[in-house]
Amino acid sequence: MDQIALTRIAEALERMSPAPLETPDFNAASAFVWHVGPERLEPVESVNRVDLDLLVGINRSRDTLLDNTRRFAQGFAANNALLWGARGMGKSSLVKAVHGSLVDDHPQLKLVELQREDLPSVARLLNHLRGSAHRFILFCDDLSFSHDDQHYKSLKAVLDGGIEGRPENVVFYATSNRRHLMPRDMIENERSSAINPSEAVEEKVSLSDRFGLWLGFHPCDQDEYLAMISRYCAAYGVEADAETVRAEAIEWQATRGSRSGRVAWQFFTDLAGRHGVALR
């Protein structure tokens, strides 16, 4: 076999089994994104987030997650958390805002974002985090599973940790529109068609039970919606007639057919732009 053929075989084997990931410099940033193909932890120079004080109408969830995260940052016991409920009500924003509010006092606290489709690689990611002196919030946004989705088995490596157990320096936060991480109609269908209905969906449904904290997010009412916009105006220095802003905000949400924190921010973005205010 000639040298060219040997070289090609060696390159193919290297692609199939890449070199082990070098432990990154966790002091390079406060947040990282986990990528696969090739596997790497990429530093995030500037996290896209809002201040914790700007999140209105979710006080109980805010305080609970903040206390849990502060204890974790201080080296004490903390629970994994599932933030579930209405879309656009600040679930992922809260995770990022809580981290941002604590990182100055606890620089060892790092946020690591993991995509749902990359869950099969989570065991290897945990191996890189396990031996570090830093504390890691492993964050997965918009987590849910379909009936033939096997990714939930990989998630157990984070929540239960197998024989080794979950690394003491890792806590897992996830957001989902579904309390049990799978559609209600799928749960009912599997229960009705199974030989043993109580066991049909137990494995997937029980996955959500492994989160120590369940934080529910519900649609906001009109007063909360308007309070969000008022808070944004005050924080970014947008000066406008209150009654005009109120009327425009109500019209804006009517055209969208819903009220949420996301809709409030979208209206405010339009309002700030019309008043010549840059959002940084």
Question: Key terms for this structure?
Answer:
7 strands; 280 residues; alpha/beta; 2 domains; 7-stranded mixed beta sheet
In the CATH hierarchy, what is the architecture of the largest domain at level 2?
A: 3-Layer(aba) Sandwich
Strand order of the largest sheet: 2-1-4-5-6-3-7
| Number of distinct beta strands | 7
CATH fold group of the largest domain: Rossmann fold
- Contiguous low-pLDDT stretches (5 residues minimum) are none
Q: What is the total number of structural domains?
A: 2
Query: Share of helix among residues?
Result: 40-55%
* Straight-line distance between termini: 61 Å
Characterization of the model:
With 280 residues, the protein is α/β, with parallel strands linked by helices. The chain has 2 domains: 26-217, Rossmann fold; 222-274. It contains 11 helices and 7 strands. It has helices spanning 3-16, 59-73, 91-102, 122-130, 151-159, 184-193, 197-200, 202-209, 222-236, 242-256, 261-274, and strands at residues 31-35, 40-44, 81-85, 109-113, 135-140, 170-176, 213-217. Strands 2-1-4-5-6-3-7 form a 7-stranded mixed β-sheet.
